[in-house]
Write a structure and sequence with these properties.
The chain is an alpha/beta fold and about 350 residues long. The protein is about 45% helix and about 15% strand. The chain has a 6-stranded mixed β-sheet with strand order 7-6-8-5-9-11. Helix 3 packs antiparallel against helix 11, helix 5 packs across helix 6 and helix 5 runs antiparallel to helix 14. The chain is globular. Bound molecules: succinic acid. The site of succinic acid has 10 residues, from loops.
C-alpha cells in the first residue's frame, strides 16, 4: 500500500511539472527561446519600390528583373516589393514618399524631376535625340552624370537611368501631320516648362495631369490628346479614347531610378554593391528590350485597335524642328550652358548628314 502511495505521488508530481513548464503556464510573457530563423527575419531588408506604369511596359518588366536579380544575389536577404500602376502613390507624390521614407525606391519619368531640378529639363528638349544611341550617350555619359550629381544634394540617391521610348502624339480631333495641325488643341502633359514651351510653340495648350488620371480625362474630353510612348498608350488603353496617333518620335521618355539616401547609407557595403550590380544588369536589359517592347505595342495597336496611325517623314520632321526652335531659346533661362552644349553636340553627332 505504502509503495502504491509513493508511486502515485511521483506520477502526480510529474503531471503537475509537465503542465506547469511543458505547457508554459508559468508565465504568458516568458522570453521566446533563441532561434536562428528569428534572427534571419529581423536582418531581412525590404525595399518598397513604387512606380506608376503598367507591368507589361519596359519599366514594369525592368522592376521585376531588378527585384529577381537582387533577391537571387543576396539569397533573399533583400526583398524588393514592387507597387506598380500608382497602387501606393501617384506621380506627384512619389518624390515626397521617397524622401519621407514611405518607400525606398522610385523610378519617375525624368520630366517629373524637372520642376525640382531644372537641369533635368534638358532631357525633354524636342528632337534632341535623333536615335536611341543618342539617348544612351546622354543617359550614360556626361549629361547623366551631371544630372545624378544634382540629385545628390537631396534626400534621394540616383542609381541610374532606365529606358522607355520616343513619345508620340495621340488625339481625337484630327490627324496630326504638320505643326499647324496642333492649333488650339488641348493636351495632357507631364510637368516641366520645356514640355509646356514645346506645345506653346505649335499653338496648343496643356494641362499637367497625373499619368493614372489621363484615361479618365481623355474619356470626358477634358483634354483632346496626350503624348506618350507606344507602350504606355497601349498598356493604359489610351487608344480607346483617341482616334489618331502620329509616330513623330519628337522627344524621349525615360526614367531616373532613385533610392532613399538615408536607407542607402545604412545598407552594408556588400548590399550596396549587389544593388549596384543588379542595377547595371537591369539597365543593360531595358536598353536592349525597350525598343522591341515599344515596337511590339505599335504592332498590337495596328492589329487590335481602330486608332489611325500616321508616320512623319523626314521632310515633315524638318518643319516641326523649325517650329520648336524657340523652345531651345527658352531652355537657356534655366538649364546650365554646359548641358545645352553637350546635348547639341550629341544631336549633331547622331543626325544623319
Ligand atoms: C511613366 O511611364 O512612368 C509615366 C509617363 C507619363 O506620365 O506620361
Amino acid at each position: 500500500m505504502k509503495t502504491i502511495v509513493i508511486i502515485s505521488s511521483f506520477i502526480l508530481a510529474g503531471v503537475l511539472t509537465a503542465l506547469f513548464f511543458g505547457f508554459n503556464l508559468a508565465s504568458g510573457t516568458s522570453p521566446i527561446e533563441y532561434d536562428d530563423d528569428q534572427e534571419g527575419i529581423s536582418e531581412q531588408v525590404i525595399i518598397r519600390f513604387s512606380h506608376v506604369a503598367a507591368e507589361n511596359t519596359p519599366k514594369g518588366m525592368a522592376a521585376r528583373y531588378f527585384a529577381k536579380s537582387v533577391q537571387a544575389k543576396t539569397n533573399n536577404e533583400i526583398q524588393v516589393e514592387i507597387y506598380s500602376n500608382a497602387e501606393l502613390f501617384q506621380d506627384q507624390n512619389e518624390w515626397e514618399a521617397l524622401t519621407d521614407g514611405k518607400v525606398e525606391m522610385i523610378a519617375p519619368a525624368t520630366a517629373k524631376l524637372s520642376t525640382l531640378f531644372p537641369n533635368w529639363q534638358v532631357l525633354d528638349l524636342p528632337y534632341a535625340f535623333p536615335n536611341n544611341k543618342a539617348v544612351q550617350e546622354a543617359y550614360e555619359g556626361k549629361i547623366g552624370e551631371k544630372l545624378l550629381n544634382d540629385l545628390s544634394q537631396s534626400k534621394g540617391e540616383g542609381l541610374g537611368f532606365w529606358y522607355n521610348g520616343f513619345k508620340q502624339f495621340t488625339n481625337d480631333k484630327r490627324p496630326i501631320i504638320e505643326p499647324e495641325d496642333m492649333d488650339q488643341l488641348h493636351f495632357r502633359t507631364m510637368p516641366g516648362p520645356i514640355i509646356e514651351a514645346q506645345f506653346e510653340a505649335v499653338n496648343a495648350s496643356t494641362s499637367e495631369l497625373s499619368f493614372n488620371k489621363t484615361y479618365q480625362n481623355l474619356e470626358v474630353d477634358f483634354v483632346d490628346g496626350q503624348e506618350n510612348t507606344a507602350s504606355n498608350i497601349y498598356s493604359k488603353k489610351f487608344y480607346e479614347e483617341q482616334q489618331f496617333m502620329t509616330i513623330s518620335n519628337h522627344a524621349y521618355l525615360g526614367y531616373a531610378v532613385i533610392i532613399n539616401e538615408q536607407f542607402w547609407n545604412k545598407l552594408s557595403e556588400s548590399h550596396q554593391k549587389t544593388i549596384t550590380t543588379s542595377m547595371e544588369e537591369t539597365t543593360d536589359w531595358i536598353r536592349r528590350h525597350s525598343i522591341e517592347i515599344n515596337d511590339s505595342h505599335i504592332r498590337e495597336l495596328k492589329r487590335t485597335s481602330d486608332i489611325k496611325i500616321d508616320v512623319l517623314t523626314n521632310e515633315q520632321k524638318k518643319k516641326w524642328k523649325k517650329r520648336f526652335m524657340p523652345v531651345y531659346i527658352h531652355a537657356e533661362k534655366s538649364i546650365s550652358p554646359s548641358l545645352l552644349k553637350e546635348i547639341k553636340r550629341i544631336q549633331e553627332h547622331y543626325s544623319s548628314p
